[in-house]
Amino acid sequence: MALYSDKVMDHFLQPRNVGTIENADGVGEVGNAKCGDIMKMYLKIDDDIITDVKFETFGCASAIASSSMATELIKGQKVDDALKLTNAAVAEALDGLPPHKMHCSVLAEEAIQAALEDYKSKAATD
Ligand code: FES
Nearest C-alpha to atom 4 of ligand 1 is from which residue? Predict the structure, then answer.
């Protein structure tokens, strides 16, 4: 069996939503100390709905595929629903990741949560 699913390869080779958002409503950056990979998420939020999301990932194929899939999963979602996105759901949507690559999907969950927390803290001070 191939190490990576077709979906992982597809999202790695043609990642969706790569880039940045100017004046984003929420930005979150996380890293994995062990491998040194970094992921940054940008959110545009209108009326509690995530209307746009972009990412920059300096990392492995699984991290890039996880970022890409995670952005697709939360686009159009309510903030509170997006907060519930787990790394397991991201990995499942990719038709699985090798066990030693599951931590890469954790970065996607954490980056989105960090961006949503940033949005919430900004909204609280407005
Ligand atoms: Fe670091 Fe994949 S090896 S995120």
Answer: 104
